[in-house]
Amino acid sequence: MFKKIVPPLSLSKRNILSLALLPLLLGGTATGAEPVIKVGVSPTTSSSALYIALEQGYFKEQGLNVKLVTFPSSGAPMTIPLSQNQLSVGGGNLSAGLWNAIQQNLGLKLVADKGSVSKEHDYIGLLVRKDHVDSGRYKSLQDLKGFTLGLTALNGVSQEIVTELFLKKGGLTPNDIRLVKMSYAEMNVALRTKNLDATVNLEPYLTQAVLDGFAVRVAGSYDVYPDQQSAAIIYSPGFAQDRTGAAEKFMVAYLKGARDYEDAFTKGKNTARIISLLQKHLQISPEAVWEKLIPAGINPDGRLNLASLERDLAWYKDKGYLTDMPDLQKAVDHRFVEKALETLGPYK
Q1: What is the per-residue burial (b if ≥16 Cβ within 10 Å, else e) of 272-304?
Q2: Which residues pair with 149 in a beta bridge?
Q3: Quick check: bond before 81 cis, omega within 30?
Q4: Which end of the chain is more exposed for a tag (fewer CB within 10 A), N or C?
Q5: Model-wide pTM > 0.70
Q6: Measured between alpha carbons, how far is residue 324 from residues 96, 100, 107, 289 in Å?
Q7: What CATH class has 24-116+228-344?
Q8: With bands split at pLDDT 50, 70 and 90, how would you rate the model's confidence at 154?
């Protein structure tokens, strides 16, 4: 298993603090006929479809009152408020904690793609400090040995799988490195201040680190795990079961946002406008990051990669993060996507 370092504020204190603040963070129910739909988001480009749907008015177009709630570290802390219906929707990376909640029949449903890796959307990568590359300390993946490497979660998360695959390709094992848990932004700070040797991070933080000159992207996730399903849109039990009409409308708006994102970053359609909308939610500098970043894979038709999910579940089970394998056919619910596609048609 990985050797882990706990950062100055312990995990237990972080959890206690997060839970204590949840009522304030999530807020109450709006007055009026339509309740607020609270949506958990992480500040990454794979959340772009949600940001665009909000800013383009697609949720309002569907008669929905949506409030985005930011979880800065990763999607993992969304699991509890989702299972308790404090959030209606979550958009985050897939973790063992989420799968354990699904295994406990808490009613959570994976309903759409929110982040997947392809050759054109290789938005997750391995960063190594530039001084290590310049000095020759790092030349290839085998030189990761002895490094301290940052991840957003250490208790079973999709990027942990990618990290192990990078190590394996270099002839190493998880015991050859040390891991620390940090938020996406904290990892870049730690690389800049030379408190980390490497990270597995995602856009826009990858391109930001490269352009700022303190790190080098030495490998992409696609090199070791093509087509990984890294993140998903998750519906709470109350939203999926009791507010089906709203859940169907939400998916229409979400897929419209995903299509705008795909159009902008792969077809060059209305790119400047879409970037201006995303800048309201993603504080990225320098400006050149927007021109250089690799777009996240967000399936404009919404469907999740089931084969990747099965592979990752087997990894979690093998590592002891799961005691039993969840029923994937019950966990994934594509009926909201299929219903939305009746309205929108397939992406072209």
Answers
A1: eebbebbeebbebeeeebbeebbbbbbbbbbbb
A2: 179, 198
A3: no
A4: C
A5: yes
A6: 11, 9, 17, 42
A7: alpha beta
A8: confident
- CA dist 281 and 288 (Å) reads 17
Q: How far is CA 211 from CA 289, 291, 341, in A?
A: 7, 11, 39
pLDDT given at position 33: 55
Q: How far is residue 3 CA from its own chain's centroid? A: 23
Domain ranges of the chain: 24-116+228-344, 124-224
| Residue keyed to tokens 């084969």 | 307
Cβ contact 71:95 at 8 Å: no
Q: What is the pLDDT of residue 19?
A: 41
Closest CA to 332 of 252, 249, 233, 227: 233
- In order of 129, 134, 198, 210, the CA distances from 213 in angstroms are 9, 11, 14, 5
Two structure tokens written together for 16: 């206690």
- CA distances to 12, 56, 233, 334 from 258, rounded to whole Å, are 36, 12, 12, 16
Residue that has been written with the tokens 């990747």 in this structure: 308
Helix 244-266 and helix 48-55, axial crossing angle in degrees, nearest 10: 100
pLDDT at 238: 96
Q: How far is Cα 275 from Cα 279, in angstroms, rounded to an integer? A: 6
Question: Hey, what are 292's tokens?
Answer: 């250089």
One fold for both 24-116+228-344 and 124-224?
yes
Tokens of 170: 């270099």
Least confident range from 20-24, 119-123, 209-213: namely 20-24
Fold (CATH) for 124-224: D-Maltodextrin-Binding Protein; domain 2 (3.40.190)
Q: What is the largest CA-CA distance in the chain?
A: 63
Pairing of strands 109-116, 229-235: antiparallel
